[in-house]
Design a protein that fits this description.
The longest helix has 15 residues, at 4-18. Helix content is 25%, strand content 28%. A nine-stranded mixed sheet has the order 2-1-3-4-9-5-6-7-8. It has helices at 4-18, 26-33, 37-45, 51-61, 65-70, 115-120, and strands at 85-95, 109-113, 130-135, 149-153, 164-169, 172-180, 185-189, 198-201, 206-215. It is elongated and about 65 Å long. The termini are close together.
Length: 219
């Protein structure tokens, strides 16, 4: 399990190179990650890793997220290498509470993944079908939490099979389990029992893909 102190230590090492080998403080890390210094201090005390911000930090610098989280060594922190597969990460797109859309024209960042994560997502042959977005809201707890990053395989659009899917509807983008009804409606089912299933006409639901993995903000 990743440790926030070791992760932040690596971030400081990277920033030290960028800032001229000077001592790097927590305020520098907070600024580089785009979060408030007090928020970072709270996360350290709670041993909570800011996954979304770490992903953005790595994507901008072409650094393997697996190196930063799991201490896997690469020859150069900033060298582009074929050892790492890449998927599009749409950091400004959220799903679950609606209000978003996922399309090929949206500008995303590249997330670099090594073989261990690639295999968990179905292998190198599947990577071309996978994109990553963020979870918003608590409707899929305890399976998915707000702030989690989920990997979507856009090749899997058969809603008859069990699993969690990302769907586009007239009112936004959702992450839900799906139940097809004989009357032509689709039930969007939450894992959080506090939320009742939502019925939508099947013609108004487009299955974007199936959730095949996640990076959790609540590890």
């Amino acid at each position: 399990m990743p440790d926030i102190l070791s992760v932040l230590h690596k971030v400081k090492d990277i920033l030290s190179q960028e800032l001229g080998e000077r001592k790097v403080f927590d305020k520098d890390v907070a600024e580089a990650l785009g979060i408030n210094q007090l928020t970072l201090a709270t996360m350290k005390n709670r041993a909570k890793i800011p996954y979304k911000e770490i992903l953005e930090f790595c994507a901008k610098r072409k650094i393997s997220i697996n190196w930063l989280l799991f201490d896997q060594v690469v020859e150069s922190l900033q060298a582009e290498t074929d050892k790492f597969a890449r998927v599009h990460y749409f950091r400004d797109i959220y799903a679950s509470a609606g209000g978003g859309a996922l399309n090929e024209e949206e500008e995303g960042e590249m997330m670099y993944l090594d073989d261990e994560i690639v295999q968990k997502l179905g292998g190198i042959g599947m990577i071309k079908h996978i994109q990553a977005i963020n979870v918003l809201g608590d409707s899929m707890e305890p399976t998915l939490f707000s702030g989690d990053v989920v990997f979507i395989n856009k090749e899997y659009t058969n809603a008859l099979k069990s699993g969690i899917y990302v769907v586009s509807t007239p009112v936004g983008l959702f992450i839900k389990r799906l139940q097809l009804h004989a009357n032509g409606t689709v039930a969007l089912v939450s894992d959080n029992e506090a939320y009742a299933p939502e019925l939508i006409n099947a013609n108004d639901v487009q299955v974007i893909g199936k959730v095949v993995g996640k990076l959790s903000a609540n590890v």
